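Much of our argument rests on the idea that a fold can be written as discrete symbols. In the encoding step, the backbone of a single protein was reduced to a row of integers, each denoting a local shape. This step matters because it turns folding into a mapping between discrete strings. For completeness, the protein is quoted in full, as a sequence line and a line of structure tokens:
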Amino acid sequence: MADFQHRSLAESLTAIAPITLAEMDAIKLMNRIDTKYLTNETTLVQVLADAAAAGYRAFETEGEKRSPYNSVYYDTAGLRMFLDHHNRRLVRQKVRTRSYLGSGLSFLEIKRKNNKGRTSKKRTAIPPGQLMDFSGNPEACAYLARKSWFTAPELSPVLETRFTRITLVNPARTERLTIDTCLQFKNFRTGLSASLRDAVIIELKQDGHADSPMKRILLDHRVKPVRISKYCIAVTLTEPAARSGRFKAKVRQIEKTINHKIDIQ
């Protein structure tokens, strides 16, 4: 079934016209309002068909509309960033390194959420070999100290996330939609791994609350907004000692969406 779903997904993308990286530069949306959604690949195929009909375009590089991503999330020994989210702290941060495997580019990234629900992202380039340890890079360490609440010695790699991303842009180029599939997590502290199977996490990124055809498309397919964090779900699944009670309902929601228990090894 999973192989069939992946083939159907690939086929549905062929109907969506491509957009290049140069065209995407005008809509980086580094300071934005994010709305997340949860669904499965079967429903996603239907959503993509409607997106093609509505004139959405898909980011394409080297003939591919699906791009592999590899992220490493950093946190303190006490998991402060995870607990800030768990404890509903409105102003919070996440620190990660990310490799965009299709382009070969890697970055140290700092995401901030303010008390008005807006998300901003700052990043600086790092060599691909420093995803797991950028402490020997003085420029990256100085950047972290300037742009975040943390310094490099306070942080260590907690977990890795791997996924495949589809990026859509609306005809007016006022919004961007990222669609993450094939989500897999590995916890460096516990050694546990988890896979979300055919779960799909969608994120609609806008500068404001402008009208969005995609919101109507998702609603037509009964895909509703949900508050969800890949990092927090990954910690909940792979770090049994973490205080994660608030996120366990999200895990059950994912399992209901994919109609399968999440695999943890």
